[in-house]
Amino acid sequence: MPAPRTAWRAPDGVDLLAAILAVALLGVVILVVSAPLRAARRPSGTESPAQGAEAGEDRVELEAAREAKYREIRDAELDYRTGKLSEEDFAATDGALRAEAVEILDRLGALQREAQENSEAPRAS
Amino acid sequence: MALLGRICLLLALVVCAYGIGASIYGVRSGRLEFSDSGRRSVYALAGILTVAFAVLEVAFLHNDFAFNTVADTSSRTTPTFYKAAAVWSSQEGSLLLWAWLLSLWSSLVLFVTRGRLRDVAAYATAILLGFGGFFISLMVFYAQPFATTSPAPPEGVGLDPLLRFPTMMIHPPMLYSGYTLCTIPLAFGMGALLARRVDAEWIRVIRKFAFAAWFFLGIGILLGARWSYSELGWGGYWGWDAVENASLMPWLTGTAFLHSLMIQEKRGMLKVWNVSLVLATGTLAIMGTFLVRSGVLNSIHAFGGATLGVPFVVLIAVLIASSIYLVVTRRDMLRSEHRLDSLVSREAVFMGNNLVLVALCFVIFWGTYFPLISQALTGQEASVGPPWFDRYTVPLALVLVLLSGIGPVIAWRRATLANARRNFVVPAAVALLTLIVLVLIKGPPTLAEKPFAIAMFCCAAFVFGSIGQEFFRGMRARAAMAGEAPPVALVALVKRNRRRYGGYIVHIGIAVLFVGVAASSSFQHASELGLSPGQSARVGAYTIRYVRPTASVTPDYDSADTQGGRELSAVIRSEPGVTLGPDTARTGASLSLGAVLDVTKGGHHVTTLSPSEGFYDSGDPTQGSVGHFIGGQPVSHVALDAGVTRDVWTAIAPNIETPQLKRIIALGNKTLPFVHPGEGIVAIAAMAGAYMQSPPQAQFHFIVSPLVMWIWIGGLIVGGGGLIAIWPGGRAVYSLRRRVSARSRARAAHGLARA
Amino acid sequence: MNPARKRTVRLVVALSTAVVLAGALIYTSFSAASPALSPTQLLHQAQPGRSYQLTGTVVTHSVAREGAVLDFSVADRAGGAAVPVAYTGTVPDPFREGREVIVTVEKRGGQYVGERNSLITKCPSKYKEAPTPASGGGAPENQSS
After folding, report:
1. Which one of A51, B48, B720, C23 is most buried, by most CB atoms within 10 A?
2. C66 at interface of B, judged by CB pairs closer than 8 A
3. Which chains border B (3 or more CB–CB pairs < 8 Å)?
């Protein structure tokens, strides 16, 4: 049998419960939101975070471009094997794509070397 | 507890304001800790709104009628499932759902991209919090979910019976997920423009969000169509109603975006176009929300107060103005890196697809907002109906399907024309064969009468042929290269080329869906019949016989286990032919009257259908102590026999206004006091008994629609294909690293010279 | 033709086509549209043969069914002149006296004939006013939409 359906009679002091929960929620929110600010105030790493982040973002960007380029190369090959491209057209497209891939890899390599030098330099001096 | 809810909303508003400030300050000053704090504000917002939503849910489940929204949309007799879902059946509840879903999705997205796209994400955070703040402000100032009344009324009005269908209750959360997800690419698009970074990493990140929006919006649309078809007493799945159109438009631009994004990824082209599409999708989603919330257009769906209209118009104006401003001032960084190599390339086909989708969106936009446009231009409000929509969308849909069959056959960048021509042979043959078969089966007159349906079947056949050929050739190539058995090769092929083959599956799904739409609209048999028990009628090739009537009565079960309750049940059961509720649909109808129909075709039994109409309690004492039981919104419960080749659908409108039945109600109203509702139901039982004894003629709406099921199946295929396409994985790093050697470089240079 | 010129030509052709098609669309929409009129306006302005979108409230005690045809009258929301409509087709569930409806009608002779399956009954407010007068606290958000 379904339970007797009476309006949920809130126990006395529900407003107190609500107030306590509200204060607790406020506390959690403040803690969560201010955590990065409090962490930043403590003396931390030597290098400026913004700079490191920039270099990291450039690297991520190149890696994304590299993945996209690889995908293009594979697509071109699949196009050739499923009969959409003639041998010549495939060779031309494949060549162009690989050249572009090489270019991206070169830039990535340069970035990596730069990052290595930066991390070694402080030690050397 | 309502106090807690109200505090949550205020706190949420504060957090939004802080988060916007912190994110923007963090980006401008370069102090990452503030950007991080802004991101965490979004997490905090999600937490706060979860608490608020929980407070409201609990109030509904516990029948706390002190909450105005609970009293307005729920009642003790509303089944529990619908009580839980009634939270979002009201204006204020649905605003809370929207804001909550926005905060959840935003938190997920920002968590996943933490540490990446720092600048862009910070601006996006501010924009998303802006949206959140907007909706929360609406809840704080205009439509309060936590408004209470004291003393609390003893009983609520109950959920509108029209909404007591499972599909209908899941449809808003799905649709709102779609709408809120559309704002995320918009936020990241604006963020990218503000941060001046529209690049490969942005593409990679935004693709997933755009897909999620497209996916959930698509589910929401499909569910809405399905609800309309299988549960409303209308028998259709799409009526070009303003609100239906409002959800379709962002889906169309979202689809266009998913395609043209690939072009930007490959060729660095169409940056302005893509950014505009992303902004348009988000704006259309907000406009869609606005349409439903503000009642500005005549629509069966339009709910809500005019008070909400003004804030929304302001928001939409701000969105459009800022979008245009951003694109224009950043146009130098949005310049294309390359140009289209050749018109015979998949890129070109994709651009064609984009144009058709945007054209479709434009047509639908124009038709939907026409009442407002004509009012503004001519002073006279006028509207266009479904025939106008069909006239323009059908040819566009044909072109769209055709393009989805042409695309797979063309290579990226520049296809070999001779090869392309050769590759069209099989698909064209399949299409031609289909045409011949159709003409043979249906006869040439059908070709003239229903050219668009036939054309759609042929286009779909073309698509099946084209994609089937692709799968076959791919499988064969892989089997040859990797030495795998064909089935293994097929699976491996799809696994390693998810985007391509997942996309192909989506296109098959779309073709299947359109076949279902074409067949069920053009080859439908529909009829209005008036039948008495024992009578038969013919509709097309089908014969329908009214076998016998049905009736069920459901008393309020609060008293079922008492002496009085047991007596009531006995009285109801004692009426000949009347069954004791709950009604089969389990929606809490006081009285449910229906019929059993026998459907035969050519002498063979096809199916037995049992449609009914439910009459609900209005709780309104002015309708009388008996009248109120059936004075609420009547709802048709259709009977549907869904089959692979056809659906048989029927709805009944029983006549409860016969003199005899009206006499019973009048007598009951006079003699039975309102204060004992239990006794009133006895009169309803007497009504039901009288109905069973001498059933009056009932009106039936009878429809046979071919291939409707394939619409839903097509939708599932689209969803499945989409998931395959977006599934991460399939890295190609290994083989190519080796190959990019010095020898390859030389070859590449050589190839470059020749290209 | 050099590539740049080819591209410009393509762009011009594409844009012109788009403009022409959009223009055709916009032009036909005005002629294909049914003006939305209230019952009073309809009685004054209706021309035979043109279809109009009639919006109003169903008059009490005006609903009668004769077989497949449903007869009812539609009046302005504020009351006043009523238009009798003879309608065939699907009748939506929410339809009843006192509800707001939209129906496409055409004047034929002296009668107003409803277009088949064009009857829309506006969803009675989802956001209902509480039935008991005691609930004065919350703002009634209902609008018959």
Report:
1. B48
2. no
3. A, C
In sign, the C-alpha dihedral spanning B187, B191, B194, B197 is negative
pLDDT per position as a tens digit, B580-612: 876 655 667 788 899 999 999 988 999 999 999
Write down the domain spans for chain B. 525-710
Per-residue confidence (pLDDT) for residue A53, from 0 to 100: 60
State the Cα–Cα distance between residues B590 and B588, nearest whole angstrom. 6
- Report which DSSP code applies to C1: -
| Yes or no, beta carbons of A89 and B411 under 8 Å apart | yes
Widest Cα–Cα separation across chain A: 85
Chains in contact with C, counting 3 or more C-beta pairs less than 8 Å apart as contact = B
Stretches in chain B below the pLDDT threshold 50: 300, 302-305, 732-740, 751-755
Q: Which amino acid is at B641?
A: D
- Residue B413 DSSP code: S
Report if pTM > 0.80: yes
Residues B621 and B615 sit within 8 Å (Cβ to Cβ) = no
Predicted local confidence at residue B529, as pLDDT: 86
Give the DSSP H or E segment for B174. helix B166-195
C34-121: CATH superfamily: Nucleic acid-binding proteins (2.40.50.140)
SS (H, E, C) B674-727: CCCHHHHHHHHHHHHHHHHHCCCCEEEEEEEEECCHHHHHHHHHHHHHHHHHHC
Looking at beta carbons, which residues of chain A come within 8 Å of B422?
A: 83
Locate tokens 């609930």: which residue? C135
Q: Which of B295, B530, B634 sits opposite C93 (nearest CB)?
A: B634
Structure tokens at B576: 């000949």
Among A49-58, A104-113, C81-90, name the one with the lowest average pLDDT: A49-58
Q: What is the pLDDT of residue C12?
A: 87
Structure ipTM: 0.78
Strand-pair partners of C37: C54
Q: Which residue has the tokens 């959920």?
A: B159
